[in-house]
């Protein structure tokens, strides 16, 4: 039995579509992965769409909540702060390789006993090693701490296809367009147009993973053609929308 038996723990749970895990925080760093389905992670540091080929890394003590865009099986690995120091120093979405996926699944199945056997300790050490140099993916939507800008962002993510312009939002907040742009850029690190495009395309990604037809998703995002949507999506994420189509069900035996 190792002196380090509790430095990593795992948990797995199934959730229905539309379920929300209320705002909370952990003293440990957390890796969140949807083995099936799509979740949205909203943290004090940003918002991420998380399809099954990715995971969200959250540093210790970062407040967050989780929304299920579809029925989802969520696996989570929690790591003590000392071990987490070797992991990414920002909250981010990382690519989940087939190996990392199996390691996360195995750790989640072992629960609090991850490190209580030699095999479990090796598994945990390899999982940590795989996470040390991940390529952060561009699926992040920065979230403002300014309450007025956050209300604008919430309205846009709730209805990405709505066409209100920056000057419309500025008017509703009783400020000039110039002041609105300054506040928005300061609180998100992006200009309004960039942020709105990222919000729309991340919402589109979630819809595609959930099985909605590409043409319908394109129209819902305000694009008049499949090709225009595909070009914008690839320019933003480096991947075509078809890469996020759900896998077909296995053939019946």
Please state roughly what percent of the residues sit in beta strands, choosing from under 5%, 5-15%, 15-25%, 25-35%, 35-45% or over 45%.
15-25%
Distance between the termini: 44 Å
Q: Please bin the fraction of helical residues.
A: 25-40%
* Sheet with the most strands: spatial strand order: 1-8-3-6-9-10
What is the residue-averaged pLDDT? Answer: 87
The number of helical runs is: 9
Low-pLDDT runs of 5+ residues are: 1-5
Structural class call reads alpha+beta
Oligomeric state of the chains in view:
single chain
- Number of E strands: 11
Shape verdict: globular
Element order, helices and strands?
EEEEEEEEHEHHEEHHHHHH
What is Rg? 20 Å
- How would a crystallographer describe the biggest sheet? 6 strands, antiparallel
Overview of the structural elements:
With 253 residues, this protein is of the alpha+beta class. It has nine helices and eleven strands. It has helices at residues 81-84, 98-110, 118-132, 147-158, 166-172, 177-188, 192-209, 214-220, 226-237; strands spanning 8-15, 20-24, 29-36, 39-43, 46-50, 54-58, 64-68, 72-79, 92-95, 136-137, 140-141. It has a six-stranded antiparallel beta sheet with strand order 1-8-3-6-9-10. Strands 2-7-4-5-11 form a five-stranded antiparallel beta sheet, covered by helices on one side. Helix 8 (214-220) crosses helix 9 (226-237). It is globular, with a radius of gyration of 20 Å. It starts with 7 loop residues before the first strand and ends in a 16-residue tail after the last helix. The model is unreliable at 1-5 (pLDDT under 50).
